[in-house]
Each structure stands twice: as structure tokens, then as C-alpha cells.
Amino acid sequence: MATAFNRLAFATLRHSCRIQYRRKQWMGLSDRRPFHFNPAHRAPSDEDDGSSSQNIIKEPYSFNPDQLDPEERHHYDLLSPEEKKTFQDEEKAAYEHLTSPAMESELQGMVNQAVYDISQETPRERYIPPRIKPGLMAMGEIDEQDSGEDEDFDGDDITSTAHGELEQHREIREYARIAAWEMPMLSKLAKPFVPPPLDKPLRLRYTTYMGETHPAANKVVLEFCTRDLPGLTEAQRIKLIKLVGVRYNPTTDLVKMSCEMFETQAQNKRYLGDLVDTLMAEAKDASDMFEDVPFDFRHHKPKPKYKFPEQWKLTEERRAQLEENRRQSALREQEREETGRLVDGVHVIKQFMEAMTAKQPVAARVEVPKAKGRQRNLTR
């Protein structure tokens, strides 16, 4: 009888403790509100006085035997009226315990913990910060975004200065391999030099740094001779020289300009070409030919060019004369050696040292009687 009573009590407790307000709170976690650590809250109404006890709607206790399963109902019907009364009182006490605020808080904490565990198990995408383009001052330095944390130094590596020397050695060996194996094959692509035609008077010069990034890599230098420009009269050429100012070299009759304002060499080349077109148009403008403006070449400091004297140049007659003088000097040297007039410096020094040794007197050793204290040897 006791076994049947216990089974019926557990079954009744499972079917009767269906708390509606907790079910509504759990259903609030729908697609519109993802998992969150805090419980869902409803907006306060005018009838609420702010107390937490009135915000929760607690249904009154009710027990209906018809909600039991057929087997559980059979065991319930076998109980006596006193046992049924005791069972209902215990079931009501269990209902009051499960619907108490303390139990509700504990259940809500368990739900929050389950939600947190699920959120931690969900894989998250790794955040990759955007790369920052290094500026001019940081050019050539190690990228701090890809360096990561420093490894522990165990004394099994060389210093950073040694790594730099090793990297320089590798670079030198790389260029040595290129010079030994690849550059000889460039001779197959060699072409004979053809001077530029007269219809192309502009000469452009570019600078490359073998693939390395350098601030001066985009610089373009333009040179042209004023007499090679087509369609200019002498008066227009003189006006062009006055317009270019300090960029004109009167010794070589060359105009030299450069540009590095833009990021690419093509843009700088286009700017210099447009500038030459503007100078040509201004030089051909006959409204003002600058006849009253004199030349100003103070910016040009010609370098002196020293010429080798003509009498110092080695000609065939001068070469023959030098050969004859060398031959005569060798004959005189041989004659002195044969007659004994040739002075041997080593022999003279040896004789002088032997004579000095023979003239130097030898000191005599004198024995002195022993005395108290330190003993000394006197020489005279």
C-alpha cells in the first residue's frame, strides 16, 4: 500500500506543478529575442505599484484526478479518504514550495546558466583588425600587426644586429648569383645604340632602386637643347631662355627640369611635357618678347677644365729618349760595380759596427771583501 501511495504522489506532483507564468517567461525567448543573460521584462502598467510580488501572476492551487494517467488513477482510487486527504495536503505543500520566489530565482539562475553555456559553445568568427598602411617613417620596419608576441629567449639565437648582417650577406649572395648566371644571358638581348632623331629633342631620365620603395623613385628629369626645338626663331629662343631662368646652362645650351610632385613616374612625365608645351606657346607669343630684359647667368658657375701640357705628353721621340737614358744609366751602374766604385750600404754599415766594437774597452771585475749586510760587486 505504501509503494502505491509513493508512486501516486510522484505522478500527481509531476502533472499538477505546471506553472503558467514560468511557461510564458520561457516562451519569450523566441526568434525576435535571442538568448540573453537577463530575463525578459514586460512594460509596467498603471495598475502596478512597483512591487515585484504583484508583477507575477500566481494561479490558485487546484487538483483534478482526471488529469492522472489510467494506471495512476487506479492507484489513487485504491487510497482511503484519509490517505487521499494526506496526499492532497502534501501535494499542495510541494506546489507552494515550487511557486515560491526563492525557488523561482533558483530556477531562473539555472536557465541563465544554461543559456550562457550554450552561448559559449557556439563558434564565433574571429575578428581581424584592418591593416594599416605604413607611412614614410615606418617604411622598411617590421609590421607590428603580424609580429605577434615575443618568444622566450633561451640563449639559443644570435642578436638582432647579427641577423641584420646575415640578411645583408644573403642579399649580396643573391645579387652575386644574378650577376653570375642571369646577367650573361642579357647579352642576347643587346641592341646597338641608335641616336635619337632630330624630331625628338626631349631626353627623359628615370631612377630605379631595384624594386625597393624609395621616395625618389617617382622622380623624372627632363633635358633638352634650345637649338633642337623645332619651329623657334632666334628671338623666340632667347625669350625661352629668359623664361626658364636658372634652369638654363649657358655652357652646354641645355635646359634641365625635374618633377616629383605626383605618385607615379607617368604623371610626372606628363606634367613636364605639358610644361614644355606651355613654354613653347609663351615663347611664340609676340605681344612681349622681353627685349628690355637682359640675360642673367649669375646662377651658373663654370667649372675650370685644366688641360694637360703638350710638352708633357708622351710621344714616340720622347719614349725613345727615355729608353736611351735608362740604357746609359744601367751601363754606368755596371761599370762602377766592376771597378769597385759602387758603394754597398750593407757592407759599409757592417764595417762601422765592427770598428765600434773593437774600440770599446772591456770592464774589469774586481772582488770586494765580504761585509755585513748586502753584498755588492764593484766594477771600474
Largest sheet: 4 strands, antiparallel
| Poorly predicted regions | 1-5, 15-37, 47-54
Report the count of strand segments.
6
Secondary-structure content class = mainly alpha
SSE pattern: HHHHHHHHEEHEEHHHEE
Strand arrangement in the largest pleated sheet: 1-2-4-3
| Rounded radius of gyration (Å) | 56 Å
- Alpha plus pi helix count: 12
- Ends apart, CA distance between termini: 145 Å
Sum up the overall morphology in one term. elongated
- Helix percent reads 40-55%
Let me know the average pLDDT.
Answer: 79
Report the β-strand fraction as a percent range. Answer: 5-15%
Summarize the structure.
It contains 12 helices and 6 strands. The protein is mostly helical.
Please explain how this structure is put together.
By secondary structure, the protein is mainly alpha-helical. It contains twelve helices and six strands. The strands form two sheets. A four-stranded antiparallel beta sheet has the order 1-2-4-3. It has a two-stranded antiparallel sheet with strand order 5-6. A hairpin with a 4-residue loop joins strand 3 and strand 4. The chain is elongated, with a radius of gyration of 56 Å.
